Amino acid sequence: MTLKEGLYRIRFVPVCIQPPFVGGVYARSTEIGEPIAAKADGPEDPPQVWEVRLQNGKYIITQPGFSTKLPFMGPGPVLAGWGLAEPSDKFPGGPILFKVGYQEFDIQPVGEGDSLMYSIKVPNPQGIHSPGLNAEFYVTEDKHILQSQAFWSNLRFKQPNPCWQFLPVSRK
């Protein structure tokens, strides 16, 4: 089922685990320009809500109502979301950053029913890493941060693409 626009909590699904399950780590914003964290819920951390919207046939993921601790950044409210490091700067394999210059992602369903998950595909970079490699880049969790990581499609043993659950949150 195609992902609908709306408010979600976004949870990483480890390989070999099928939803539904209890616990896990969720995508959490930090501060503008910092990597997006993957953290479990805790007493000091209220649930993180993300807004998912379609834009140009792709999805953008932003945080509604974000307020920064940084000094004034310019006119108007700041709409920050998931973005990439510059292709020449730690990419591929770089962190997914919480930034104002958010990125469009290709989000595809995996499974169905209670086991429905989604893969978050990162646009192929225009740098030296992409030509002829048959690499596709996906958002995954590594060392408690979200990362853009290459998954090669021409290997004999294909590693499963990382998956995420988009858990709907009702508007209040």
Overview of the molecule:
The protein has 172 residues and is mostly beta strands. The model has no long low-confidence stretch (mean pLDDT 83). Strand 4 and strand 5 form a beta hairpin. 25% of the residues are buried. The chain is built from no helices and twelve strands. The strands form four sheets. It has a four-stranded antiparallel β-sheet, with no helix packed on it. The chain has a single domain, classed as Trefoil (Trefoil (Acidic Fibroblast Growth Factor, subunit A)).
Number of helices: 0
Unreliable stretches = none
Q: Name the CATH class.
A: Mainly Beta
Spell the H/E element sequence: EEEEEEEEEEEE
Count of the domains? 1
Helix content: under 10%
Please name the CATH topology. Trefoil (Acidic Fibroblast Growth Factor, subunit A)
Radius of gyration equals 16 Å
How would you sum up the global shape? globular
Tell me about the largest β-sheet: 4 strands, antiparallel
